[in-house]
Every structure is written in structure tokens, then in C-alpha cells.
Amino acid sequence: MNTKKTKTTYGVYNLIEWHARLRMGKATVKVAFTGGSITTQGVTPATFTTENPVIQFAIENSPEFHNGKIKVVRRVKLNGVVEIECNVPKVALPIPAPAPISTESVDAPVKEDENATEAQADNEAEAEDNAETVPVTTQVEFSCNDDAKDYLEQTFGFVRSKLRNREDIVAAGKARGVDIIFV
Questions:
Q1: Could you state, in chain order, the average pLDDT of each consecutive group of 10 residues for the chain (183 residues)?
Q2: Residue 139 has what pLDDT?
Q3: Sheet holding 71-83: strands in order across?
Q4: Minimal CA–CA distance to 19: which of 9, 28, 32, 29?
Q5: How far is 101 from 21, CA to CA, in rounded Å?
Q6: 3-state SS track over the chain
Q7: Quick one: which of 101, 93, 69, 77 has its CA closest to 151?
Q8: Which of 33, 43, 47, 167 has the lowest tally of Cβ within 10 angstroms?
Q9: Looking at beta carbons, which pairs linking 42-48 to residues 24 or more positions away fall under 8 Å?
Q10: Mutual orientation of helices 166-175 and 145-156 as an angle, nearest 10°?
């Protein structure tokens, strides 16, 4: 998206100087309005001039601008063009399914006698115990923390704010049987 670049002067009337702190999302923009005067000849507003489109956006979308405390004194169109880029949305990658694990156990043939049923029962119980103690793990590779957080959030419902660093991400993955590897 391209727009014409402008140089805008904003003014605050009835103030000689004002250092405004304007909220823009989670960020704060500090703007210094200076050079104002109030004399018997008239009122000169405290002004601030900028060519920066981000600061212009912050000022023109602030409550102070909307309620009339900050006003546009003059706007000059410049020859330049402001190019605004946007991030391309990420394509959701398919989540790999965990590999199936065979629970069949290979036993040597047992001669049928009175101890055969007991030995077979012991072998089956041992196979079940081994199946319970060997957790199913899947290895998933990520290039950055945000991708791993997205995976854990979408797959297991983790809260992103609880995953503050790589150790938290790896621990959350291990809790769900996933080995998270960063490349």
C-alpha cells in the first residue's frame, strides 16, 4: 500500500508547552509540543511537526486528537511516497501424527504343560507393564520459539503467556510426550 508522504504540524492551543504521552497499542509515543505563547496580541499554539507516518498515525488516533485538544495546524504534501508493508500470514503446517507403537510381544514357543498358562500370563503382564512405562514420544523441529508456542497452543491448548522461554516450551512438550527440537 502506498500513500503520499506529508509533513504535518499539530498544535495544542492555550498551552505554552506540553509533553504528551500517547498510547498506541501496548506502546507509548512521547510527543513534545513547544513554542506556544499567550499574549495580548493573540494565542500561538504549542506545536509539534513530524514527517514520520507512524507518529502521525499515533497522534491522529489518540483520544486527545479526537476530543479536539490536539489539532492539525498545517499539512504539507511532500514528493516522497510512504510504502506500508504487511506481514504475510503464516501457512498452518500439518501436525504430524505420532507413530503407532506395536504392543505385540515376540515370545519363544512354550511347551504346553501346567506351568504354560502361568508363564503366558506372566509374559502378558510383563508386556503390559513395559507398554505402560515406555512413553510414546514424537520429535518435532522448530526454528523459533513462536512456532513451537503455536504448535503447543493449537495441539494441546497451552496458554502462550505461560511459555516464556525455551525451557518452558521443551518442558511443556515433554509433559505431552513430544520432544521439541530447535534447529
A1: 82 91 88 91 91 91 93 89 70 68 56 54 55 63 86 85 88 87 83
A2: 84
A3: 46-50, 2-12, 71-83
A4: 32
A5: 59
A6: CEEEEEEEEEEECCCCCEEEEEEECCEEEEEEEECCEEECCEEECEEEEECCHHHHHHHHCCHHHHCCCCEEEEEEEEEEEEECCCCCCCCCCCCCCCCCCCCCCCCCCCCCCCCHHHHHHHHHHHHHHHHHHCCCCEEEEECCHHHHHHHHHHHHCCCHHHCCCHHHHHHHHHHCCEEEEEC
A7: 93
A8: 167
A9: 43/13, 43/14, 45/11, 45/12, 45/13, 45/14, 45/15, 45/71, 45/73, 46/11, 46/12, 46/15, 46/16, 46/17, 46/18, 47/9, 47/10, 47/11, 47/12, 47/73, 48/9, 48/10, 48/11
A10: 30
Place of cell 499574549: 39
